[in-house]
Amino acid sequence: MRALRLTIGAAGVAAMALGAVLLTNPQVGKALEVLWWLIGAVLLHDGVLVPVTLAAGALLPPRLRRATRGALITAACLTAVALPTLLRQGHRANASVLPLDYGRNLVIALGAVAALTVAWHAVRRRLRVIPRARRRCGRRRSIGRPGSSR
Length: 150
Fold this sequence. Notes:
By secondary structure, the chain is mainly alpha-helical.
């Protein structure tokens, strides 16, 4: 297990080193734009996504919090990933650059996340109700506590 962790850590360090080399390489260019994008991603995550998710989760009943927070995080990440393509829509000289309807596809993906979350809640509730009913029906009334001499 330790060897696996060291291998994964070494791969991560190598990827960061490669990223640093590519970022500082003058042939790649646009290093400042990438840096601003990374700063914006961190600010978006820590300044908007996390507080909104935690606040929305705090307003929900406890039985709905876990799956709903997961759905909110997934929806926020999908939106953050699709945001650049949504902002670049418009007239293009080359029609093959952004050929899809990204707004519609984002709505479909968010709808799928919502539908799966509702289905998850329904299945969890159904599975929780069945054992309770079986326990009630299978219970026998006892006169006293087990082991008591009555």
